[in-house]
């Protein structure tokens, strides 16, 4: 870690030590508030496909693609992949506010500025935000780091495992009621530039650096809710530009002893566009909770299409909440009139079964025990191919 | 012996009565609001509505996590536990979509704030209220 990283971590730890509980203070007409969240996780691989994949000793479970959170078989009980702490502060004056959120993750060994945005409430229904925010691709995107607000130990990676989670830009949000229905509509535009993508460390090696640029991001989402039912739809499009930035892990399948980093630069595949379509329908009916979500990503000009979906059913029994979730990532090869690219495509299919047991420890903390089993039914021509995996995770979540 | 049984019986009656207390939502008499529906109260305390029907901005007040009145209020109003309510607020608060009700330390403090501010709303047990506040919604035990 660099000295800057040490200083950032020190600042965060200091903030956490001196802010034992969420707080709000007012001075000179400006209202300050602070809060935070913590997840301490411990997980162990229970089995799966034994292989050296990139520089990982597998079986491996990829729990958070964007931040290269990988449970492997090198060690027993591992706490780094999902342990994280975040602090958030905001200052508001009348209808204007500024909010910042910093998250320190064990997986990346860094503390990063996740959110920094200004908000202006134009009126009771419309607000404008400008700055760095979470890209709202999914229902739980905004809170995917806040374990206490999730019904799982971590969001299902089959659906939420993407290379970009934040963006710099602007959005306008409209909230209203129509009869018994509440509606929230959001339009956004911006860009994201990440020179050291966690996602691509999974595919190019832990020490690799890969640049990811999503430009001309434009989109919107609409959420409708009534009593126990909530439905959300999203559309986002952008240009994509992804390039090797130095060393990548190289393996010769014919020679198992040949495994090393080699220099590599230039684009991974030609600059392209993407169109993201998503739909979520969720219910909280009496003691039952149902979570369903689907996403499809089209890549005009490339030779594949991404699909991912989840269906989860849980039941609240006092402080206990058992939940069963099925999720799946699928890559289909698209050849209709599309020119071949530098990156060949082969079908992928990765169903994931998740069993979660949550226990509400206090009104602001919980414990989770989670078992996950992923079956990799992808084409063997895909590389890297992480194969099957089974993971057991325990988490302690709190907000403060 | 009979005296002990009587004391025990009266104790149980008192405990049951304490659990079954009515919770009422109160406002300042100058708020311009006479009555709220259950949906109105849900919208205000769950951050979906920031304005009373009279046009005055709302400032809902919450009792501490550990208070039995808070637990009863949300259980009767929404059917959800305090943990579920807090998880809901974690989602809205950390994303800047809405701010949770301001926290007060006791029912007495809540009542004082409602008397002092015509935008404030609070939930308290019926036995605590005075003529200086107006009841606009009642949550009786089911």
Protein architecture, described:
The complex is a heterodimer of chains A (400) and B (142). Chain A has helices at residues 3-18, 157-160, 198-204, and strands at residues 23-27, 30-48, 51-53, 56-58, 61-64, 69-71, 84-93, 96-105, 110-121, 126-134, 166-178, 181-194, 210-226, 229-252, 255-267, 272-285, 288-298, 304-315, 320-333, 348-362, 365-374, 389-399. In chain A, 37% of the residues are buried. In chain A, 7% of the residues lie in helices and 62% in strands. Chain A has 400 residues and is mainly β. In chain A, the strands form three sheets. In chain A, strands 2-7-8-9-10-11-12-13-14-16-17-18-19-20-21-22 form a 16-stranded antiparallel beta barrel. With 142 residues, chain B is of the alpha/beta class. Helix content of chain B is 42%, strand content 16%. Chain B contains five helices and five strands, in the order αβαβααβαββ. A five-stranded mixed sheet of chain B has the order 3-2-4-1-5, with helices on both faces. Mean pLDDT of chain B is 85; it is low at 13-19. Classes of the chains: A mainly beta (400), B alpha/beta (142). Chain A binds chain B through residues 24, 33, 35, 37, 88, 90, 97, 99, 101, 117, 119, 124, 129, 134, 142-143, 146, 148-149, 173, 175, 177, 180, 182, 184, 286, 316, 319, 360, 362-364, 366, 399, and chain B through 39, 43, 48-51, 65-66, 79, 81-84, 86-88, 90-91, 93-97, 99, 102-103.
Topology:
The complex is a heterodimer of chains A (400) and B (142).
Chain A: H1 3-18, E1 23-27, E2 30-48, E3 51-53, E4 56-58, E5 61-64, E6 69-71, E7 84-93, E8 96-105, E9 110-121, E10 126-134, H2 157-160, E11 166-178, E12 181-194, H3 198-204, E13 210-226, E14 229-252, E15 255-267, E16 272-285, E17 288-298, E18 304-315, E19 320-333, E20 348-362, E21 365-374, E22 389-399
Chain B: H1 2-19, E1 23-27, H2 38-45, E2 59-62, H3 68-78, H4 82-94, E3 102-103, H5 107-116, E4 120-125, E5 134-139
Parallel strand pairs in B: 2-3, 2-4
Antiparallel strand pairs in B: 1-4, 1-5
